[in-house]
Amino acid sequence: MEKKLIELDIDRLAFEGGGMAKRDNLSYFVRSAIPGDKILANIITKKKKYIIAEIEKILIPSQQRVEPECKYFGECGGCTLQNMNYTEQIKWKRQFVIDSLTHIAKLGQIEVQPVLPSTREYHYRNKMEFSFSDSRWLSKSEIQNNEQIPDKNFALGLHSPENYMKVLNIDDCSIAPFETPQILEIVRSSALAEHISPFNSKIHTGFLKNLVFRYSLYENKILIILISNSEFGDIEKKYIKKIADELFKQLKTLEGFIWAINGNVSNVAVGEIKEIFGDNFLIEDIQGIKYRISPFSFFQTNPYQINKFISTILEIAEPTKNDIIYDFYCGTGSITLPISNKCKFVYGFESSNQSIEDAKYNAELNNISNAQFNVLDLSSKNIDQELQSFPKPDIIILDPPRSGLHKNTIENLIKILPKKIIYVSCNPSTLARDLEILKEYYSIEYVQPIDMFPQTYHIETIVKLNIK
Known about the structure:
This protein is an alpha/beta fold. It is 23% helix and 30% strand. The chain is globular.
């Protein structure tokens, strides 16, 4: 098939990574291109208002272009900004926030503070989730080199953005803990040697589903969770024991190895704990407060940035010793407990039982008596009624998932009408969507982006809203 080539000057960065160019009143989206590149592009797909293309050749590279550290860049889909220097990355992340607040929330000339950069650009994640699959996605180099691959029906790695049913077999990850290559090699080689089958997402057979590890910066310890299908026998049980022994033998930083079972057809990396070798939790420290991290509870993924993140929230919130505070989506209490030192009382609400159990444990661990944690479905229609037994809040802190606030949550916020809302978001688009509704009742006083996810397009934003 003949290629359709066109010269493009890349002048913008697309929100999910990749460059944008305008030509003949059409927008071009080019993966792995960055602003400042002059490229020869190959047109892949034509839509009504835009065209998707790929780089055929870089004619003049951008001055902001750098060599990606990861050999899987452009194939696993995870770190789409790795070919751009870090200073330029945070410049564009701030622009993503500005664009969303201007065009979606329609806030006009909103002032957005400069991004607070991460102190570490690589190997910063304290949690990684890898998948097993019998449907392996071959990398371009494997195809081009016509490599003989003996294990085409076994992959341990990350899902391909080209086909989510397939998994790219990887041996390292540049944003994961330093122990990643060693862990992947031990688990992969042992599974192949013992002929343990990986999961097939189409027909839902196979034993191995996910490999998760969590890291504590405070302890310099790792927790490994292997998640399997529910169907197993003596061979699989022996494998679990063997792999646990091997990991403890080779990894000095290993705190615990956990076998969990997920019998659902989905490949979501959660499960019911079947067996524990060593400990089943880690301890992390934020601003002198200790936190228990369980296998499947939520915790911020960049421990090198989290103290700055939490202190910024507290500074923007400006709590007083007389304030009653609600912390919605409180998780294990990473915001709730530090702010308890600065207010009269704080109530944490979260739908996850495991997270609430951890949060209660963390409060007791740190002898904090003015924080209470409660299981609550924050998307429920009648949150305001369920909260009637609690004192009315002066401040509500929100840290929802990427999907933003449920419409019921917004309606209940408007019913409660606290004097102040601190909205913490990891998605500028859903943040802006929610602010467009809340701006009728609140003025946007302060917007502070903070980078928790270097090399990716993701950006955390803290917004202060004061009641009108």
